[in-house]
Amino acid sequence: MNRNSLLGVVFALLAAVGFSAKAILVKLAFIEGVDAVTLLALRMAFSVPVFIGVALWLSRSQAEPLNTHDKLLVLGLGLVGYYLSSFLDFLGLQYISAGLERLILFLYPTMTVLLSALLYRRAIGKPVIAAMLLSYAGIALVFLHDMSAKQGGVLLGASLVFASTLSYSIYLVGAGHAIRRIGTARFTAYAMIVASAASLLQFFVTHSVAQLALSRRVYELSLFMAIFSTVLPVFLLSYAIRRIGSGSASLIGSIGPVSTIYLAYLFLNEQVSLLQVAGSSLVLAGVLMISLNAGKL
Predict the structure, then answer these.
(1) Distance CA 187, CA 181 (A)
(2) Which of 29-43, 111-125, 177-191, 271-285 has the highest mean pLDDT?
(3) Contacts with 89 (C-beta within 8 Å, 6 or more apart), sequence order
(4) Which residue in 86, 79, 38 sits closest to 221, CA to CA?
(5) Which residue has the higher pLDDT, 24 or 112?
(6) Predicted local distance difference test score (pLDDT) of residue 193
(7) Strongest mean pLDDT among 182-186, 188-192, 270-274
(8) What is the spatial distance between Cα 83 and Cα 90, in angstroms, rounded to a whole number?
């Protein structure tokens, strides 16, 4: 593996852990009584100044202005990939555990690879297929554990998160093409500004300013979410996609469920069973296989 591919693998892994922590922070915030729309708006409100700053800084460079096609691409992917996916995910987390949420979200590597193969006519190598099978065998084991402790609304929550997964998969496939055209940082900043604007607009249409009278802990959790589960992983993932492609980046991200399971154990007291340990081991093995083949997708 060359240095460029290795950096892509590291960036994808760090992004996966950062995104995984989001579910824990969301669940902790829900304990404080905040709703999904408000929490998403706070997350975006805290993170959007960074993206605006990046966009302004890049505007001073010699970058050519976006054409109509590029603007529509940023608008569409920002709405589908960051706003819609995040909103559906937040809604789903009201009904299911953090571990189960992350498992459903990580159906997206399969969706992304298949969509990429279909749209861009890319062959899927045998090592990648083997890694997918290994990773998802592990995820299936953990899924069996979570389903053994059913709670009310699990089907609704799982459906919402599945819809979030589909929208995110579409984003990942489109992002690989858009990043090559627009540039990593530029595309990410613009797409996140679009998503932030949509999230804030939704809040002000459906809520009153008085509903922002929340506990200090909600604001602290929202700030942590903005920094460590939004700004940093968003840019890390974009750089990973640029270096190793959307298929490899998303498959390496299958370490996310493992991270979430143990974070949920530490912070939410969610149970860890032998099934989860066995499944996590298989997922890690699959991630290692993908890492070794990162430059081949």
Answers:
(1) 9
(2) 29-43
(3) 101, 105, 160, 161, 164
(4) 38
(5) 24
(6) 95
(7) 188-192
(8) 11
Q: Which two tokens stand for residue 95?
A: 């009904």
- The amino acid sitting at 143 is F
Distance CA 107, CA 85 (A): 14
pTM of the predicted model over 0.85: no
Whether residue 295 is predicted with pLDDT greater than 60 in this model: the reply is no
pLDDT of residue 123 exceeding 90, the answer is: no
Domain boundaries, the chain: 3-296
The token pair that represents 129 in the structure block: 């297929």
